[in-house]
Predict the 3D structure of the following.
Amino acid sequence: MKTILKSISFGAISLGFLFCNALASDSDGRINAVGAAIIVGTNPYAESEDPVEVVPVPALSWNKGRYSVVGKGAGIRLWDEGPWAVDAIADIRFQSLDAEISPVLEGMANRDRTLELGGLVAYKMGDITLSTQAQFDVLGAHEGFEVNMRARYDWQIARGTFFRPSLSLIYRNSDLANYYNGVLPDEARLATGPNPITVDGVVFDRPAYAPGETISPQIGFTAIQAFNPKWGAFAVGAVEILPVEITDSPIISEDYLGIIAVGVARIF
């Protein structure tokens, strides 16, 4: 089975999102913790070997002064004044395309992971936090950028019991969306062509396709139950509704991306 880090679209729903929320006992999340989780996620690519995948992963949150490492990302707090906070961030995009996971992708070039840099601005109003995060590729993989606008609500249900719903709107420019969801002209394989793609007797049409820039909504949640001051369990989930520009791609077969993680962590 292909690893989830290669086939699930973590550009939409990332480990950084999951663990940054799940390991945070306060609204800012600036704690030190280590743990482990089981992730279950969907794979959007057509005729994939594993449309739903399950994999164990580590969870990490480390903070010292202005510096932090959470999940697959790192940050530096540049400004913190009243309700406002500004961070510089670095994030690994695990989203990738491995042509071996599906016969529909046969002959396509792999799409690679990459490192992205950017910034985050957050404004806190009581239990509600509004944030905008922007990041861009620095290794020349997709050469694009993404902007994520998010609202979240921190709900302390009881002592040791915490719930955080969130709603996001994600913008991806055409370079990013085309790279992971598009088909280049020299990758096209037409059903009427000399070398069509056939899976279980069904002929697939893979024309050249470029989705262009996209906007999609995402809803998520975090639930945390503390056992004691040092140990706790968490469950985190998110669903992104894919826009028609992506679902119309000949290599995409899902209308949404979903992921859930359940795990435990120890706070230091």
